[in-house]
Amino acid sequence: MNTHTASLPLPDLIAEGEPDDILFHFDGVAVSRENFARKIGQTAGWLSRNGIGEGDVVAVWLVNRVEWLALLFAAARLGAVVAAVNTRYRAADVAHVVGLSGARMLVLEPGFRSIDFPAILRDLDPAAVPALETIAIVGAGAVEAPWPCVAFDAFETDPLAHAPRGNADAPLLLFTTSGTTKGPKLVAHSQKTLAGHARSIAAALKISPDASLLAMLPFCGTFGMASLLGFLAGGARIHAMDAFDAEPALRILKDEQITHAFGSDEMFRRILALTDEAKPFPHAKIFGFAAFQPGWRDFAAEAETRGLPLHGLYGSSEVQALFSIGRSDAPFADRIECGGWPMSPQARVRVRDAETNEIAGAGVSGEIEIAAPSRFLGYFKNPQATAEATTADGFFRTGDIGRMREDGSFIYETRAGDAMRLGGFLVGPGEIEDELKACEGVADAQVVAVDIGTQARCAAFVIARDGATPQEADLIAHVRARLAGYKVPARIFFIDAFPVTDSANGVKIQRAKLRAMAMERIAAA
User: Which residues contact 211 (CB under 8 A, 6 or more apart)?
Assistant: First the structure.
């Protein structure tokens, strides 16, 4: 294709409409179409003057700010790549994403609430991020780092003068996904996959300028990004929160008469708990949710009585969030199930029977496979993993278990394998186990997910080295310093050996038995 075309799918999302149309509200500050377009041009020029061009990777480690979006759209113009870094990540997580992506620049905000970005940065091993050349600082503050630091002052500079040249089919945005050993893989999406899915969302949900979105999910994840781009494509009013907080979320939902919002069941639970009004959201149309916590069906029923119209969703980094949703005209029990109908009429979903390896009929559980325009380009710099996750006829093997309904919709049932859902994120136990095994006195470790009250947490089992006496508090402190808070074990138990079973493929650790043991010990405590 012509990589120097003036029309690019992502920037085209803001091309239609009047210049003074308000696209976003960030902390009460309105950003018009004309103003955002200028910020994109300024950011593209700033990146170019700082050595970022076609194919270069910029790691963005920011909360939800207009700078985040300006960097993404500017990268689309330049043909650069944005690696999204979760703000809940700590040194080991950040090093993994920045190192694996080959990012030349890391953009961060030194001070945001309780997140000590400079301290985390000081723990970043330069050897783990050999391509990193520059730290760009957004807002006030400074950091001490072995790399040159520059101020992100793009909005005070001149816009990029020359025409855009980004390739709409090349990687633009890298999301992280669940890892099983040494950390998450990087999921590559192009302008075409991102913008195409955004338009599918806008069409499927009938989004118009009369609609409004509370963007309370982080832009660094597909859940937050897909919903934001979808409503941008539909011309809706978007009120963005820098980070989720139930009290201001409630205020925005009520004061701005928000029609749509997306989040986890726990986020909506916390919002509803703050008001005694019988029906606090009379303007609500669709509140899409992902079920991450125990008791979500009971909560959805309670929310329904209070006029909160919850709709089950399905998605992943590989096919993007809001891939599918429960329809408004479906019975309540069907509408709230994770899964539903794909946003894109071109998407195809099927289920493969694990026993027969054949495509299953309705009602038969198996692995969900998806072919859709929203599907990823592949795992960045990992063709082997891409091949393993893709069928010969182009379907993505999700690793999720579900079943088809007779009407063509589907239901997500559970995650196959060992991945855990913690803090709203899929987490491979291997990365937590690796951190524990790096501690002095630890011979081996296994991590499992457990339900503690209404929270999904992880618990660890550790085998100590001969003669060593590692302490639970020390091990927990080590993990907390290295990984995101939601990956820190709630408890660590010391045992002499893991329960195992023999199989045709060798000895396997009985993770289900470990999970039961963890629940018993936590209950007893």
Answer: 231, 234, 236, 237, 259, 260, 285
